[in-house]
Amino acid sequence: MIPLDHGPVGCGAYGQTMRLTAPGHLQGVESFGALHACTDLRSEDISDAGDRRLARAIDEIAELFPLARGTVIASEEPMPALGANIAGIAKAKMAEQRRLILPLCGYRSWVVETAAALRAAELLHPLATSSSKRVVLPYSREATALVWIVSKLLMEIGLEPVHEMTQSSAIDLARVSDSKLVIGFASKADALDERLRGGYADLLHRWFATPIVWTCFESPSMTTASLRSIAKRFDRRVARRVDAAIVKGEALVAKTIELYRPRLEGKLVLFFRPMTEAQLEPYRLLGLRVGDASGWTGKTGKQRTPRLKCCGDDPDERAIDSYISEAKPDLVMHFGNGETRGEYEWRKRGQVALPFSPFFDRKGNAFWGYDGFACLAAALDRAMNATWRDLVQPPW
Asked: Which partner from 141, 200, 227, 314 sits 20 to 30 angstroms from 105, CA to CA?
């Protein structure tokens, strides 16, 4: 099934980050979950609530992706308020195309929705059994991409992760109140400073008095530290499995560095907002130079500053253009939530930019842990060493 976000393209970025995208499938042929299809609703489409645009998008999807079994329409928050006839169009197109077209409700306030779902699940599905190895893995809609990595690690060390999110099953939600530990995400393992922590784990702690362990999987070394912190909360069997997982993970990291560092070393990546040491580590392990709004590392290793001052929080168009022409980066990354320059704007100006999520939103970074580091290296290599870069000239 192809997910189609119905609404403005900016809001549609959230739709893609909510989807769990497992690796190992050829997108557009074997799987379609990583595709970012959006109706890109404009102000001129409001007169008919975007109905014509939706019908056209469904037709285009059927033509572009004939191997898909159908389309899932994920309506965004503005659509119900506009009175869009989403269900009617889906029914008509399903009869016309003879493929499944499934309309879903609009995204709502996920915090309120999650709270209500947790309470209801606890009443509807009381647990008859208890597990001493059950842990809660809470995540917001921006962070879905990281769950497959963290979940796999937790299962590998003998724990039973319960995913807690608005779209979790009722039975999974019911298990939250009976879990032994909440895995909280922070900017570093065992974070003492509350400013470094994510607030969702604290919410569960207040509701169910479940202890929290603060973890960080944004780099290989932080992943190792986080696994050791988790091991301290359980028995020796879990500790032994943690040691085995760390040995296996560090071997994968070493193999990845050996494979990709020669291909990436010395290349310049611009991520305008500053990153933490944990976030910078994967790039440094691969030998990349990294720049932010304050400056970049030159080829000689000396720190360079742009001629025109560039502010990361409120970037100026002229300063960004000057910075890019001066630094000549190999990869330009989106720099945050809703700023002027997005993925499409970068590409129109001839810069290489990766798709929305995994790179652009650090909270939703899909490249956590050991497996994620390997995926990150492969993605960077594809972006910066792609053969098509020598074949075309912007504007494309």
From this structure: 200
**Distance separating alpha carbons of residues 114 and 122, to the nearest angstrom:** 12
Q: How many domains does the chain have?
A: 3
**Neighbour-count burial of 203, counting CB atoms closer than 10 A to its CB (0-12 exposed, 13-18 middle, 19+ buried):** middle
Q: What is the CATH number of the domain that holds 121?
A: 3.40.50.1980
What is the extent of the structural domain holding 139? 110-215
pLDDT class for 363, splitting at 50, 70, 90? very low
Q: Where are the alpha helices (DSSP H) in 18-169?
A: 51-64, 78-82, 86-97, 110-124, 147-156
Q: Is 229 within a domain?
A: no
Structural domain includes residue 221: no
Helix (H) and strand (E) counts for the chain?
14, 13
CA 189 from chain centre, in angstroms, equals: 20
CB 182 within 8 A of CB 138: yes
Cα separation, 34 vs 21, whole angstroms? 6
3-state class percentages of the chain: helix first, strand second, coil last, to nearest 5: 45, 15, 40
Contact 164, 183 (CB under 8 A): no
pLDDT at residue 193, as a whole number: 63
Q: Whose CA is closest to 72, among 102, 94, 49?
A: 102
Q: 327 pairs with which residues across the strands?
A: none
Q: What is the pLDDT of residues 293-328, one digit of tens each?
A: 888 888 888 888 888 887 766 667 778 778 888 888
| Residues 180 and 130: beta-carbon distance below 8 Å | no
Does this model's pTM top 0.90? My answer is no
pLDDT surpassing 70 at residue 12: no
Residue 253 lies in a domain: no
| Cα gap 361→318, rounded to integer Å | 24
DSSP secondary structure, 226-250, as one string: HHHHHHTTS-HHHHHHHHHHHHHHH
